[in-house]
């Protein structure tokens, strides 16, 4: 039985064998299980029951009364009648298919696509250009200690994709993915994720958990008959009459019946190879900016009115602004109690990202500050998808050229707003160090102008926000290009080629990417 089916069957047994009711409760931030059970019993006037938290969110609107808002599913013989099932499970048709599938890329999209295809009866092989997670972890540690970059083991490439070494946020703005989302969460829980991800309003896993989870998922995939190959890079494809007949790699060639490519947000070399082989892309809006960093205590006080809150790890924020009336500026991938990391995918490029562990107990908080922009606006002319990639790549190289290494260019937020370096002593979690830099000159003019307006707006919304710093280049919040797909999720003009996840331009983040992988796999399965 699949992990999804397992959890679903337990829940169905509970609500079909006894009465079931949903209730909403307010609880103090440091509540215990005993206090929660007592409140449920008092509200429903029952003694014997079981319960399941379905949603848990922090209400900090009134700083003198910050509390949890809970939605609880209660099961008891003392409750008359039942309730509606909370979700419909993902049903994967299983049969002997005698058909092979090659999945390229082992991030959330690639893995969950392969996971579903394998359960449906395909003979599935996964390949990834990078290292397995244990070797990748050692490579990243060496990079952060000595600045030795490895193209096979970094923050972008390797087992689990970019998401493995991040905050592990499992939120998504994507709609109509409830079945897929539940399947993904159940799979993570079966692989050792904390149960709370099923009900937290803003669930996260943390890099420490993710490294263990992706290893366990790999083991489950292989034990069930899947094949997984690392340090195996797709370098070309052979196409005849709209069909991929061969996939060429540095470890030999493959002749699968179907090809699924999930390259992630950084594999520009793969995008270009696909373009040369007739895969159609278009340009689209994306985002550019830098990473903001503050001492976590400043964020806690701004959000809660106090430096710490019992029962809550660290304060978060989500900020948006249309202050310049041209570009939306917003925070992205906020990592409470985390660190800023060197996230270059290729040698002699310099970009940053955020990461945190499950406890979120570091001294600093960070988030991207980015402005939405179109490649045409960036270039001042209409550009092709290939030219859009060139623009971003050139910007990443210019940040490397400024420092001559992977040290992060940085300045104080207030200095950025005034276009003048005044503060040369900056605190940061960034492991490779900072170099004072005029970021307002290094970023594109449209982006700098929009960010200034946005940061001024953020300062009005959060006390002492201007005391933070800006560092590095954030260029991978979303892709500047999007592949063209038909109604069956195939690349337009191809009969057996699929592209999915962040690299396809149809997803962003762990959940939406994994859900895209599940949806593409299911479309392939159901089309047969």
CATH class of the largest domain: Alpha Beta
- The total count of strands amounts to 21
Q: What is the CATH architecture term of the largest domain? A: 3-Layer(bba) Sandwich
How does the major sheet shape up? Answer: 8 strands, mixed
Task: Describe the protein's architecture and organization.
With 528 residues, this protein is of the alpha+beta class. It folds into 3 domains: 11-76, Alpha-Beta Plaits, CATH 3.30.70.2700; 100-282 and 483-526, FAD/NAD(P)-binding domain (3-Layer(bba) Sandwich); 285-474, no CATH class. It is built from 14 helices and 21 strands. The protein has helices spanning 3-17, 33-44, 108-119, 133-146, 178-190, 206-223, 268-276, 296-304, 375-379, 385-403, 413-418, 439-442, 445-461, 510-526; strands spanning 19-28, 50-59, 67-76, 100-104, 123-127, 227-229, 234-240, 243-249, 252-254, 258-261, 281-283, 286-295, 320-321, 329-342, 352-355, 364-373, 408-412, 434-436, 469-474, 481-483, 497-499. Strands 12, 13, 14, 15, 16, 17, 18 and 19 form an 8-stranded mixed β-sheet that branches. It has a 5-stranded parallel β-sheet with strand order 6-5-4-10-21. Strand 4, helix 3 (108-119) and strand 5 form a beta-alpha-beta unit. Helix 3 (108-119) packs parallel to helix 14 (510-526). The protein is globular. The model is unreliable at 1-16 (pLDDT under 50).
